[in-house]
Design goal:
4 helices, single chain
């Protein structure tokens, strides 16, 4: 699963859980059954898990391109040097 797929999976999870909670509450309130409300919400959680947890192909549309190990060793990433900030005098601060 790539980074954008992870973001999509999390967004789908949040939307589906909130939607199933709202639907479960509405049905449970109208019918007056706490048990039915919990069963509907449980079904929403199971459906959400089946859709968002497995690594489905639509979660891997933007795969990362990794360098081969030999190429990475030939072209190492340059080290960043930290340049300390110069202290300013009080005259420059005014």
């Amino acid at each position: 699963m790539d980074w954008q797929g992870q973001k999509l999976s999390e967004q789908l999870m949040q939307i589906m859980l909130v939607a199933s909670a709202l639907i479960a509450f509405a049905v449970g309130y109208v019918i007056g059954s706490f048990r039915l409300m919990l069963l509907i919400y449980l079904g929403g959680v199971i459906l959400t898990t089946l859709i968002t947890v497995p690594n489905w192909p639509f979660f891997n549309r933007h795969p990362l391109k990794w360098l081969e190990s030999e190429e990475a060793e030939r072209n190492p990433k340059p080290l960043q040097t930290v340049i300390p900030k110069k202290k300013t005098s009080k005259a420059h601060q005014k």
